[in-house]
Amino acid sequence: MRVVLTIVKEASVKIREEIYGQISKGYLLLVGFSDGDNQDTVNKVVDKILGLRIFPDENGLTNLS
User: Fold this and answer.
1) In the chain, how long is the greatest CA-to-CA distance?
2) Contact status, residue 29 vs residue 50, Cβ threshold 8 Å
3) Per-residue pLDDT of the chain (65 residues; tens, 9 = 90+)
4) Is the C-alpha dihedral spanning 21, 29, 34, 49 positive or negative?
5) Do residues 59 and 47 touch, judged by C-beta distance below 8 A?
6) Do 28 and 8 contact (CB within 8 A), yes or no?
7) Does the reported pTM lie above 0.70?
């Protein structure tokens, strides 16, 4: 399993030219799964993502998860 996290100004998901979801400024996660991934793998990655310190604190420093 691989995850890429990026900050975007806007993003959307299109399937057959129809928009299924879109966001303005925010975080975009691209997730790839493989045959060997299981629920334990997913849980570990989710815990890592939730623990990332990517939000600003009261001093404006990127220091909060």
Assistant:
1) 44
2) no
3) 999 999 999 999 999 999 999 999 999 999 999 999 999 999 999 999 999 999 889 998 989 99
4) negative
5) no
6) yes
7) yes
